[in-house]
Amino acid sequence: MTTPTTHRNNSLKVIMLNIVFAFCTLLGFSQDTKTEGQTITVTVDNVKNSNGNVMVALHSEDTFLKGQGIQNLESDIKDGKITVTFKNVASGSYAIMVLHDENKNKRMDFENGMPLESYGMSNNPMSYGPPQFSEAKFEVAAENLDLNIRL
Q1: What is the 3-state secondary structure (H, E, C) of the chain?
Q2: C-alpha span between 96 and 63 (Å, rounded)
Q3: Contact, 80 vs 51, CB < 8 A?
Q4: Per residue of the chain (151 residues), what is the pLDDT tens digit?
């Protein structure tokens, strides 16, 4: 018989594994940069230290938590802040995932099923389960966007 603690620990491991898979291929580039579209400028201004860098991935619903994003960027940290800009983003629904990769190993690190590195999502949802596209999604239409994401 599983105890509530065992069930909770197993659930946390599943959640964290999903997040790991989403960040594993964060640095692949797949969007055609010749396509006209909008820009999305992402700012993270609460990076806890200057170790490593911050990886930022733009996802569609089809790519969310499944690995590689549509566009993937990374940035060095200056004064606890990073800013990146996704270019030529077509109209549609998207979500952004952010990881502070402190040791530059291009993946999220865990200890006892818990993440050791900070991460965040567009819309800054405060959920206790795996991230959901519906909570992180935003629309790109005819205007450029500026987003602030908390880690």
Answers
A1: CCCHHHHHHHHHHHHHHHHHHHHHCCCCCCCCCCCCCEEEEEEECCCCCCCCEEEEEEECCCCCCCCCCCEEEEECCECCEEEEEEEEECCEEEEEEEEEECCCCCCCCEECCEECCCEEECCCCCCCCCCCHHHHCEEECCCCEEEECCC
A2: 11
A3: no
A4: 555 555 555 565 556 545 655 555 444 444 444 558 999 999 999 999 999 999 999 999 999 988 789 999 999 999 999 999 999 999 999 999 999 999 999 998 988 888 899 999 999 998 777 889 999 999 999 999 999 999 9
CB count in 10 Å sphere of residue 128: 7
All residues at 6 or more sequence positions from 120 whose CB lies less than 8 Å from its CB, including other chains: 44, 97, 98, 149, 150, 151
Residue with tokens 């599983």: 2
Residues 6 or more apart whose Cβ sits within 8 Å of residue 113 = 9, 12, 13, 16
Q: Could you tell me whether strands 92-101 and 119-121 are parallel, antiparallel, or unpaired per DSSP bridges?
A: antiparallel
